[in-house]
Automatic annotation (TrEMBL):
UniProt cross-references to PANTHER family, sorted A to Z: REGULATION OF ENOLASE PROTEIN 1 (PTHR35332:SF2)
Species whose genome carries this gene: Thermobispora bispora (strain ATCC 19993 / DSM 43833 / CBS 139.67 / JCM 10125 / KCTC 9307 / NBRC 14880 / R51)
Protein name, entry field: DUF1349 domain-containing protein
InterPro entries xrefs: ConA-like_dom_sf (IPR013320), DUF1349 (IPR009784)
Pfam families linked to this entry: DUF1349
Domain of life assignment: Bacteria
Length: 174
């Protein structure tokens, strides 16, 4: 189990409308292994303020990274959200979550990445499939917590698993 506490007004985002990068969120990253793999965890967070989140992160540089988030939406609903940053960040909401936890999984498949989320850690919903940037560039993977509008957020990552292979299928729930 890993617990990460984000401080006040911490985030990782580069607004596509302009502005300086915000890279203040605490993160724990390690080198991504060579080849295909899956990193998954159950993410539990005290989501109290808009955009509070627990995150699985793929990092390739200060302007090239992607995050799979369990995040509090502006409507006050826990939501699975993805952000892919290639110079500027985009932002895409997937689905809302009942409760205070969700399973998140990041996978590398050759030169591509996949983000999946699950209500139970057994059936995985494809949330995003993308290429991040130069596939030969080294990548780091790991965990992040953020609280862009609030005083802080505590996130627990547990039941962390690593599989040195790609999922059996992207869209079949495996």
């Amino acid at each position: 189990m890993l617990t990460v506490a984000a401080g006040e007004r911490t985030d990782m985002f580069i607004d596509p409308a302009g502005g300086e990068p915000v890279l203040t969120a605490p993160r724990l990253l390690g080198p991504a292994p060579a080849g295909d793999f899956q990193l998954a965890a159950r993410v539990r967070a005290t989501l109290a303020h808009t955009y509070d989140a627990g995150v699985l992160l793929v990092w390739s540089g200060e302007r090239t990274w992607a995050k799979l988030c369990f995040e509090l939406s502006p409507q006050g609903a826990p939501t699975v959200v993805t952000v892919v940053t290639r110079g500027e960040s985009d932002d895409a909401n997937a689905f809302t979550v009942d409760g205070d936890a969700v399973w998140l999984r990041v996978s590398r498949l050759g030169q591509a990445w996949a983000f999946h989320a699950s209500h139970d850690g057994a059936f995985w919903h494809l949330v995003r499939y993308f290429r991040l940037g130069d596939p030969s560039a080294p990548a780091l993977v790991g965990f992040e917590a953020q609280s862009p509008t609030g005083p802080g957020c505590e996130v627990t990552f547990d039941q962390v698993t690593f599989v040195p292979a790609a999922p059996a299928g992207l869209r079949d729930g495996s």
